Amino acid sequence: xxxxxxxxxxxxxxxxxQNDRKHPHPNPQHQPSPGRSLSSSLHVxxxxxxxxxxxxxxxxxxxxxxxxxxxxxxxILLLYFxxxxxxxxxxxxxxxxxxxxxxxxxxSELRALYLLRQQQSSLLSLWxxxxxxxxxxxxxxxxxxxxxxxxxISLNKQIEQxxxxxxxxxxxxxxxxxxxxxxATAPALFxxxxxLHRRLPGRKTMDWKPRPNKFLFAxxxxxxxxxxxxxxxxxxxxxxxxxxxxVFPSSRFDYHYSxxxxxxxxxxxxxxxxxxxxxxxxxxxKNRLRIDKFIxxxxxxxPCYVDEEHVKKLKALGISVGSKLExxxxxxxKKPSKRTAQEVVxxxxxxxxxxxxxxxxxxxxxxxxxxxxxxxxxxxCKTLIEPSRLITLTAQRFIQTFLGKNFIALHFxxxxxxxxxxxxxxxxxxxxxQAASCIDRLIERANAPVIYLSTDAAESETNLLQxxxxxxxxxxxxxxxxxxxxxxxxxxxxxxHHLEDDPQVExxxxxxxxxxxxxxxxxxxxxxxxxxxxxxxxxxSASSCDEYLxxxxxxxxxxxxx
Length: 562
Known about the structure:
Helix content: 40-55%
Oligomer: single chain
Shape: elongated
């Protein structure tokens, strides 16, 4: 206290003295006497003035420091709570990316907003369409409603993925994708593909009641195994119409059918022994191996579609031919006529013990009756001509090992198919990018995580196809049957019965896997595909999404003819 009062007194005195020096008193009595020495004035008065100035400056400096120390923290706090530094720095210094997650989130939000507006527009369009047609249009089906909603559901999934994309990182991307994908927990919700149960209780059938010792000798020569199986199915229909037992061809003349088909299963389904393999027929007839009469279904390009080489093969089996190859009508395989069951009975009935009608793969007889689920014959099974039990079990084990319940099967025929398809109008051979686009659309409809690939394509083509199969940012794997591996046990049954490495067994295995798929994509014009579709229809595994590859589209590029 004393120090402060003294300082104030000194400052006051210094202030008064300075005023006295600046403003001399007018009264001469107050002026200093001339007798006061100059040295005395300098030593006393100037020394006092110097001391007072030093004290005054020291006091002002302390006051400023005190005020600075008090107000600086207050200023910093005020600035901190009143200023958004992220906005400040991002606006003035856009080059500095202080928060990349924030930037990605903003971009994702803008993208999601765009998709939401697109979804809103689609919903309004659907609403307006349903409102305008409510009085005149028929009531929409469940499938049509699902088809209309699927693109909107897909948009919703895209929005979800866009919003989650900023958070994806190598450490959490897998968890986010699995947790955020609704299809992982409820796949049926997003699939518009429905199972088709086409078997009707009142289907048209006929009983097969053969006459004793009357046989129809099957001859199938056109195409590969699939053509021959269709030919055999038609032969069974003809044998039932003509009241004869059917004899399958010898493996020395045709395929080894007992390796891919179960003939005992056919007879069990029919309830009687109506189909014989060649060895059984040979044992039954012994020294009477003879085709008594050829009644050829086709007259052109050659009778019975059998050439001299195949006649020689028949004779090499010990089968004699008792008549010329003749046809009761004019019928060309290039332009087959529609025929009825009554016409067949009228033209091909005979009292001869063993007859042959030649290759009937191209025959057009009662097509709707023949193609109905289960076929035209009365039996107690789903179908008569189907893969053997060993092949069917092996197919099931492969599916359990590699595919699971929900998968698409693709028959992607390429070898020799370019020229074949380009000869047709329109062509059925598609560039791989276009094919991949068609498959992608069907994947989204079926919501299947994997595709089984049955193909004869080169690896260069399948590799390109695989690289293009991406749906909602996910690559859809193509699965083919792997080469034999002793560590894998799914094909152990084939090895145990010495059926491995048989190309016909492998082809039938492919058919079985494709026939069990959730959705099937076939190759138009291929009998391999048609036989798979037949099995799917008979096994009740057909889907509303089954279709030919790029069905309804033209190839976006077609080579010129030779």
